[in-house]
Amino acid sequence: MAYTVKEVAGMSGISVRTLHFYDETGLLKPASHGTNGYRYYEEAQLLTLQQILFYRELGFGLKQIKEVLSRPEFESADALESHRKILQKNVARTRRLIDTIDRTLEHLKGGTAMQSEEMFAGFNVAAGEDRFGEQVLLGGEPNDCKVSSRDTGGAMCIFEFTGSGGGPRHLHHDQDEWIYVLAGEVELHIGEQQLRLGPGESAFLPREVPHVWVFVSGRPGRILNVYQPAGAMEEFFRELGTYVETPVHEALSIDGLRQLFASHGMKLVGPPLYWDEYLAGR
To answer: Where are the alpha helices (DSSP H) in 109-175?
Structure first.
């Protein structure tokens, strides 16, 4: 049985725009195209999409997923067995977190007393570490996830970025963002507003409002980025982190960058701050 792209989107929860992006990048090609130009998918493509979603859930970037699925030795059944083992570990961790919640509630209601360190069982993250022990590097600089969408049911996620870089001007369609400066100085543009933020200062970036920021004064800094709801930001940063040998702005065309942002719920609207000066100095 053949399904249209709209039907596949309805079944999988993936947007039509994302399915188009998967087709254009070669990650998931439809079984055929109708005379009307419509994409049609069959069971083989649905199974491949299922694998893509499993790998995304487990934190793989799209570039990594494409490489895995294209291997001659790839076997769907073996991959599903591997997914199952990893998800079982995640279930065990979730149960520990639920136990922490239950014990905290009991403590607050005047029941069994709780030691302070017990309040953080299951999800404490040490300084300089990532929530899942990963090391996602953006242009060689660490962007550590501190609170994951998995911890909050998709309500929010938090990252700590340490470095000197800043991304291109963009906006989020469905997310609000909050930036808190831990160290260094940040120049931040929110729509037409221009700000300079130092340690201890913060700014709110509403959804659908273009924004861009960069560390200034020639010194690296450190910020917290909070996204609410979490959306696909973890997947987005992992995908950027796969561009190690060649920076993403060199590996992808401008259309490719736009598609990358669009497939993760954002719109690319301009270059990074001081981009012309950067190019002139190369």
So the answer is: 149-152
| 31 Ramachandran zone, left/alpha/beta (phi>0; psi -120 to 50) | alpha
User: Coil, strand or helix: which one is 238?
Assistant: helix
pLDDT at residue 218, rounded to an integer: 65
Q: What confidence score (pLDDT) does residue 188 get?
A: 95
Rounded CA gap, 257 and 272, in Å? 13
Residues in the chain: 282
Collapsing DSSP states into helix, strand and coil, what is residue 62? helix
- Per domain, the residue ranges of the chain are 3-69, 76-120, 137-280
CB 57 within 8 A of CB 14: no
Q: What single-letter amino acid sits at 277? A: E
Of 236, 238, 241, which Cα lies nearest the Cα of 263?
Answer: 236
Q: Does domain 3-69 have CATH number 1.10.1660.10?
A: yes
DSSP for 3-52, please give it: EEHHHHHHHH---HHHHHHHHHTTSS--SEE-TT--EEE-HHHHHHHHHH
- Consecutive sets of 10 residues in the chain, 282 residues long: mean pLDDT of each? 92 90 92 90 92 81 84 81 73 70 78 62 67 80 89 90 88 95 94 94 96 85 94 91 83 90 94 68 49
Three-point CA angle 138, 144, 147, nearest 5°: 140
Dist. CA 223–CA 177, nearest whole Å:
12
Quote the CA–CA distance of 83 and 87 in Å, as a whole number.
6
Highest CATH level, class, for 137-280: mainly beta
